[in-house]
Design a protein that fits this description.
Two copies of one chain form a homodimer. Chain A is α/β, with parallel strands linked by helices. Chain A contains 19 helices and 15 strands. Chain A has a seven-stranded mixed sheet, sandwiched between helices. A four-stranded parallel sheet of chain A has the order 8-7-6-9, sandwiched between helices. A two-stranded antiparallel ribbon of chain A has the order 2-3. In chain A, strand 6, helix 6 and strand 7 form a beta-alpha-beta unit. In chain A, helix 6 runs parallel beside helix 8 and helix 9 runs antiparallel to helix 10.
Chain lengths: 457, 457
């Protein structure tokens, strides 16, 4: 431990980024546009503004400006929990006996328990600025709903969350955190929307799905005066806001002259991964540097490693625009993996394009090996990680052990997106030895992919 | 927000204290010694060493050395989550419209969720150094058990936790965190100890109590080769370890030339309060400075404000030494207040003596007004506080509002000891409007105090 690098590299508040980095401006192959499912033509701003806040639509469609200024009101909020620390995992290195240097950017030290707050506060700010009364959203695991509730409480906006019914019942504590922040939480499918009533009639006793909750939240947004719908991942605007993670990481590394060899992040919808890697991917694209970037996904929901790069529906209810992305098909139902945040059938269009261009690689890992890594990390580094984040931990440990074999002193950086305090049911099943792995067959994936819309764009 | 003081004052790792401050060395009236209940004489080191680790016994009995060096192994662990930030509550000040400046020392940013880790890592270190196999303890709400599990995992010690049965059943997530860290968690009263079997036979179906769990943990420690019993509050050694809170707070304040006018902490067993205020109380005792120090306790368990300063049993099972302290009587059963960490019948002997000497004052607050403050704080400052910590928030807000009346620009500092992620049942009862207040009658307290042992010391 004679190294001069501290356990935690903290930046000062003046080093919080003043602009988000829009990697699309530098990408040679731009992500494909969202399409109107009816016309098959690119969605226009005015079409999108019926559902989304205007300023956010403009960010969603912007692929020319590399830097987008962060308003001071958002930066003031960021100061309450940012800059987040870049941690040198000295204890983990020692326990593994690896010559590698391991660093993680820890985004879990806020009440939402994850990086989601970086985007929710931005989205709430633009909604407030537009003079809206409130926003609607869906939540599955609950991290996004919590983050949005916090942001809305701060700006005095009404917040309506449609929570997948099975989560609403099984995760009452997540629900109570949202209620404490003043959000109205409705189990989905509900009887308060047309689509909800329809689904309840068609499938009595259904415990809901994310796709259904999205449809309800969108209906609630467009049917109330002064409301818009907001989303916590997948969209380019969300990835944009999450670049504060990567920008701070880069500043902290530069401060100590550390050049990462490998950068690792877990990938569900792709926003935290994209946010972490954007500044580094930009350097690769501009030919300035080279890094190995690894996206880690669950073996039970392997959109990058086993999906196809095609246009698909973003939701099972098929009310949203079509997006070109690595997908398993919008009807794909992943096994009940505990990493709720990584169970989306598709992937951010930016991450998909970077993957297709060979700028990032992808790896899938099984649930039980993820929890083995999570338990090890908790005991050695003292932080109980979220199941999602633990996918990145697993691959970071794998790479550090490879360095032990080869003797290489690589710098490994990974994103630790959140804490697992609300995921103890998952840990219990691991502690009890009842956790199972599930890997879909090729036939299952092919059958699901066969239902993707036929679009020639 | 033009102030040059940042939202969060972070110290560097080199500013983590190198020694704990032992306020007893400076106290003119020393806390009264622990007594052997059989002989009525002060407990000797060799008597205490049958139950406690030797080095910790020596700390417990030390009232001459003002500074006790922190071993480098403990400081290395501290570096994983310390220094903790001293936060300027700009948003709360603005929301209250107060000219006061409010600061809080936030100890919740670690997986145990509270300050408890500061002492558990020290106690585990000394147990390891003594060559022990493991330690035993009791836990009620679960913060201490979690902190001890983490510390034992780090040093490779066996950890046996007796968890009050009603908590074990109602807080399965706390239990799973401890299991994830490798601890063996047993619901108390159990059938694995003599005292547990006796209590189960006498009171079939009992859901347990902290007093019973203490008795079981002590029996388990003395009946196993290579084990000792450890405790998370009340004892002077625990308060000593917690002085890292106060020392860091003082360093951070000094860095910006801030002199606190009021220092506020919640008080259960007294260790976090004592740790926060020790360096400041030392200055008062030595005649160097003057501060207003306020201990805040629940109206349902008002040991300082309505108890008596006498010798009493530390546990309901009466297996521990007698301590002179402000107490409500060891048989006092507080109403089911949700601040589990503040339900102890007595108070640290150091805090009791400082209170008796008029160096600190005390205030009691009701549960519903505490949760009103907690909700307000969560929405404005973005941190969901533990019910215990929210007692300090309530009084800090009260004092800031007094400043609004008078126009005084006081500096108010309070200890935010932890987060409330595992206390959502309490928040739910507040959100639902079903939370009740309870204040004991004078007769109830007198009846309980009448059962204190008659000791003339």
């Amino acid at each position: 431990m004679s190294d001069t690098i501290p356990y935690k590299i903290y930046l000062s508040e003046s080093e919080i980024p003043t602009a988000w980095y829009n990697v699309r401006a530098d990408m040679k192959n731009k992500p494909a546009p969202l399409l109107n499912p009816a016309s098959g033509k690119p969605m226009t701003a005015s079409e999108l503004e019926k559902v989304f806040c205007s300023e956010l639509v403009s960010q969603e469609l912007n692929d020319t400006d590399a830097w987008i200024e962060i308003p001071s009101e958002i930066r003031d909020f960021y100061k309450m929990y940012r800059p987040s620390p870049l941690v040198r995992a000295y204890c983990l290195e020692e326990a593994l006996g690896t010559p590698a240097h391991i660093y993680y950017k820890f985004e879990g030290n806020n009440t939402s328990g994850s990086h989601k707050l970086n985007s929710s506060i931005a989205q709430a700010y633009y909604a407030k600025k537009q003079g809206l009364k409130g926003v609607t959203t869906e939540t599955g695991a609950g991290q996004w709903g919590t983050a949005l509730s916090m942001a809305c409480a701060y700006f005095g906006l009404d917040c309506q969350v449609y929570m997948v019914k099975v989560s609403y019942e099984q995760k009452p504590f997540r629900r109570e955190v949202m209620r404490t922040y003043g959000a109205k939480v409705t189990p989905s499918p509900s009887m308060t929307t047309e689509v909800g009533r329809k689904i309840n009639a068609e499938f009595p006793g259904t415990t809901g799905s994310l796709g259904c909750a999205i449809s309800e939240a969108v209906e609630a947004a467009v049917s109330q005066e002064g409301y818009r719908y907001v989303l916590g991942s997948v969209l380019s605007q969300v990835l944009l806001h999450q670049t504060v993670i990567g920008l701070e990481t880069k500043t902290a590394l530069d401060k100590y002259n550390i050049t990462p060899d490998i950068i690792i992040g877990c990938a569900g919808g792709g926003s935290n991964l994209g946010g972490l890697i954007s500044p580094f991917a930009g350097e690769i694209i501009r030919g300035e540097k080279d890094y190995q970037i690894i996206a880690v996904e669950p073996a039970s929901c392997p959109s990058l490693t086993r999906g196809k790069y095609v246009y698909d529906f973003c939701d099972t209810g098929k009310v949203c625009p079509l997006a070109k992305m690595y997908t398993l098909g919008s009807g794909y139902i992943p096994a009940p993996n505990h990493a709720g945040g990584l169970r989306y059938h598709g992937m951010s269009s930016i991450v998909s394009q970077l993957y297709d261009d060979g700028i990032i690689e992808a790896r899938s890992v099984k649930q039980t090996e993820v929890f083995e890594a999570a338990q090890k990390f908790a005991r050695i580094e003292g932080i109980l990680p979220a199941p999602e984040s633990s996918h990145a931990i697993k691959v970071a440990i794998d790479e550090a052990l490879k360095c032990k074999e080869t003797g290489e002193e690589k710098n490994i950086v990974f994103g630790l997106t959140g804490t697992g305090y609300f995921d103890m049911v998952a840990y219990q099943s691991f502690n009890d030895g009842t956790m199972k792995d599930y890997v879909p067959t090729d036939e299952e994936i092919e059958a699901s992919l066969a239902k993707c819309p036929k679009v020639d764009a």
